[in-house]
Each structure stands twice: as C-alpha cells, then as structure tokens.
Design a protein that fits this description.
By secondary structure, this protein is mainly alpha-helical. 57% of the residues lie in helices and 6% in strands. It has seven helices and two strands; from the N terminus they run E-E-H-H-H-H-H-H-H.
C-alpha cells in the first residue's frame, strides 16, 4: 500500500482531533509508530476501523514496547519542547503538540488494554474505566481536550504521563 486517503469515521469526529469531513492519510511507507504519530492522530486505530492493518503494525499487540516508546517520546521530546514554547509564551505552536501528545496518551491507554481506540465519543469516560487509569483522568482529559493551548493543559498532561507511566508498568507486569 502506498498512500491511501480515507474519510475519518464519525466515531473519530472529536475536536480538536477531527471534525466531520476530515480525511486521514494512511501511508504505507511509514516504518515506525513514532512516524505514524507525527503524521496524524489515531491513524493505527482508523486503519483498524477500516480493517487496513497492513502495512501498519498492530501496536496494541505489544503494549510493553508502546508504553516505553510513548513515555520516552514525551519525556525526551514532547515535554521539553512544550516547556520551551510556553516559556516563550508561544501558545500557537504549543497547541498542535498538546493535541498530538494527548492523542498518543489516549491511544496508549487503550493499547495497554490490548485494544484499539474504537471511538472518541465518550473517550474520557472510557479511559477512566481502565483498571490502571489515574485518579480523575476523565476530568483532566476533558480539560486538556477543551483547552489545548493553555499552560495548565500542558501541566495536566505531564502529570497524566508521569502517573500513567508508573501504572502502565505495574499493570503490564501483573498481566504478562
């Protein structure tokens, strides 16, 4: 598969990620999960929705690797970039990064449970139902999604990554 443009399913119409009429480009020449994350939101899950997992890997089949990658990416790239942007009071450039790392967080919360994101409708409640969900995750995610250009959204997202990183590791150890 080269590139394939697909309509974003209504189940994924959730601002700020997607709205009605949006399309997603599923690229066959992307070789890493990190590359996929940098090319759009929920692309693995949208590919799964359309039963188009080839050539995409199925990341929810290897949650240990995905959690390490997501947490490392946040810690080494996302958090430092956002700290610098907010220090410079550059909310405009911070916004897409907050949205991307929020999408990654939502995906990993599902993938640790060995399932794709099937819908963004009610996703904050779905995430809070997971056994390893941090306290008040639903309220905190709702805030981040509603205000992705706010410094406090960055602080909240950072707290979620820190808390979840620990919970993911414990959950995965218990469920091997």
């Amino acid at each position: 598969m080269g590139k394939r443009l697909v309509s974003v399913p209504p189940e994924f119409h959730q601002e700020p990620f997607y709205k009605a009429g949006d399309t997603a480009e599923l690229k066959g020449d992307v070789h890493s999960i990190k590359e996929v994350w940098q090319n759009g939101y929920f692309l693995h899950d949208i590919a799964s929705f359309y039963n188009m997992n080839e050539p995409f890997p199925v990341p929810w089949s290897n949650p240990e690797e995905v959690t390490k990658l997501a947490y490392g990416l946040w810690k080494e790239e996302g958090r430092p970039q956002l700290e610098n942007l907010f220090k410079a009071r550059n909310k405009t450039e911070a916004r897409p990064l907050i949205i991307m790392y929020t999408a990654i967080y939502i995906q990993v919360m599902h993938w640790v449970n060995r399932q794709p994101v099937r819908s963004l409708q009610g996703v904050t409640e779905a995430v809070s139902a997971f056994q390893y969900a941090p306290l008040n995750v639903s309220d905190r995610l709702q805030y981040i999604i509603a205000s992705p250009n706010q410094f406090h959204a960055f602080i909240t997202l950072n707290e979620l990554y820190i808390e979840s990183g620990k919970k993911w590791a414990v959950f995965l150890m218990k469920n091997k």
